[in-house]
């Protein structure tokens, strides 16, 4: 006989009539077991943190309660014996008192060799222990209509297992989450109360996201784990839908009074989801959404820091769909770290000829290595402002630095133009106000105050782009920390900025307190839009293809590329044959027609030269070189922003059929999670195993 190993479970209520018992991780279960023993000896603490600190288990109430979000308390049980019928898919643990009684009986059976013993449980139920591998629980069925004899009742059986190792729970025991995490990511949901096709809440979807991360951490960052350089990342959900659709705003009640009774399910779906887009476009409800998300992030961050005082890592934000746009607007309206004591160049308009020198401009663009080229041409800032792209090319700058400099000059010229227009408008307004004051002295003070207010507003330039809703009444809250990066999933940011009238952000645009920005999207996602063309309209590179988490392209994509290369090879063969035929024609012409030989040679040579030009489509198919750092503005530190996922083979057959599903695929997509992990761990100097 060997004592059974106990494992701790909690009960998840799926519906009024359905519940599911879920195991704690091995580490959490052992912590609960140790705490229970200490409490039995009059020592220890009544509350134990589990699930990486996201839940607390109380031994007084035997309940598991969430820390960072609202969730019904779950019953907790110490489990050793389990049963399952043929109709059930999972084992159910016996109550603790019954399990202890069964363990005592089993001890006696094993010690005395009393196999096939029947253990009476009362009310006609019994358990028969045939051997350690075959234990059956018999339960009497209800009496049938013909009233079966009580002496021979009809029974149904259940399989009984002793210890968790004998059950199928071992396959679903969650990964251990120990210690303080390296990084925290707050994930904000999009429109509607549910996040995927299974109608799951953001908490459940983030749980999946976190579980995928833990699995990838052990499979792709094994060296970092073993060297103690990489630890887990904590993912916490951000709710905002309930605050908007709750009783406090009354918006649902008002909408219901206006909703037509026909096609009720479709109208309910529209009211619960699609209307969130219109609500965010409203200055009234946009304020509610912005305050809810900002305050929720600050509150969770403060709570996390209080429970993890040794946390030294950074924090990132991630949003899905409309949630990414809200976070983008929130970060756009954060005060710069130096906003408390702004430098003159940040607070007031500047003239490039007075304050901005050539050396400072090149230093700002990280192009100081090319200063000697400009000095050799006796260039200063005045001359540079008058240069075209062709002039800069003649100086000898490569394409990358040249594009950065041309974009910078365009931006400076646009600022100078706006400054002159504002000055002209101010002068005209000043003349009008002076004339008005001279004609109506009784209104001098009010007019003078209005004039001074206008002067102050016109000349303030914080170099902040207006990418919010455009409503001056909306005040975005300030975050208590500076995020490391913003990860947008299936995001409509590019579309919304364009609709707001922003045709170009410019390469100088950056989030004031957030240096990183990654835009992740599925190729068939109807809601997702690119961002890189907004930074530089001349940027024509395709989005970066996110590698499959197993280390290569999906098979159907490789096959498609192979067919493309085969087609290009066939085309090259045909062109080669054409060139040979043209060469033969040239020799024939040279031997028979001396007159006009020079003209014919030139035409043939020009035709051959055109045929030898590389095909652009071929280059896009065969090129696998990816350059992440292309000097693409300041939004992501000059690195690429747009990343496209690989569609699954079934999705490639009909992109319209899987369009809606593709917008909801990010929550359980390994490629998305791995991309975020690599971006975060790279900033910590930790590479994945495949990058070593």
UniProtKB/TrEMBL annotation:
GO MF terms held by the record: metal ion binding; phospholipase activity
GO CC annotations, alphabetized: COPII-coated ER to Golgi transport vesicle
Pfam family, one: WWE_3
Domain WWE: 1-78
InterPro entries on file: DDHD_dom, PA-PLA1, SAM, SAM/pointed_sf, WWE_dom, WWE_SEC23-DDH2
Occurrences of domain DDHD (ranges): 479-682
Name of the featured protein: DDHD domain-containing protein
Organism: Ciona savignyi
Organism classification: Eukaryota, Metazoa, Chordata, Tunicata, Ascidiacea
